[in-house]
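Marked as duplicate of an earlier ticket. Keeping the data here for the record.
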Amino acid sequence: MFYFDPLYFVYALPPMLLGLWAQYRVKSAFKKYSQVPTQSGINGAEAARRILERGGISHVKVEATHGMLSDHYDPRHKTLRLSEDVYAQSSIASVGVAAHEAGHALQDKTGYAPLQLRSIMVPTVSIGSNVGPILFMAGMFLAGTLGTTLAWAGIALFGSTALFALVTLPVEFDASRRAKELLVSQGIVSRAEMQGVNAVLDAAALTYVAAAAQAIMQLVYFLSIMNRRD
């Protein structure tokens, strides 16, 4: 019965639709502004290196990686990985994404607390996102104290996923803020070109909001089931 609970869609559908809309927006914005070259002629890799140098960071590597929009900063290996299009293209979308990832490296250097907390949480979240729902469902099918204990353990583990999604929001918003400021101050894009950068980075930020909404609503749904069970 648990798998076919119609109440699930009340909790899951709105954030799911928000997530689909966010994905559409980020892909659409990236595609549009990937076709608009920067007036400076600077590509993503060059933009990232310029921002890192401006921040006094010389030990972070900038390298290309496979996959569309697979760009990320790896704080463990001090490596900024840019998808091949972002790395090589001299477009507004490319420098915007590259600057955002460089913003994470700047956060790492300054000891930005939300980034440090997110890094600490990664091992727990990788377990919680997978094991938490399984424990919860197992607990719902078992009667008595054992079932209740398993269900609450699953909720606690999955709760780390929701917390991680919330902690991610200030990390991503701050990286975009840093990127927008440095792109103009370093002469990588003009103020007129910032309209495109804003469109790309704001759309990307919406995907993190959607992810947080999905995790939170999933957690609320689990709690509502426990309330009905009691």
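See parent ticket for discussion. The helical segments are 7-34, 44-54, 84-88, 92-110, 113-141, 144-185, 194-229.
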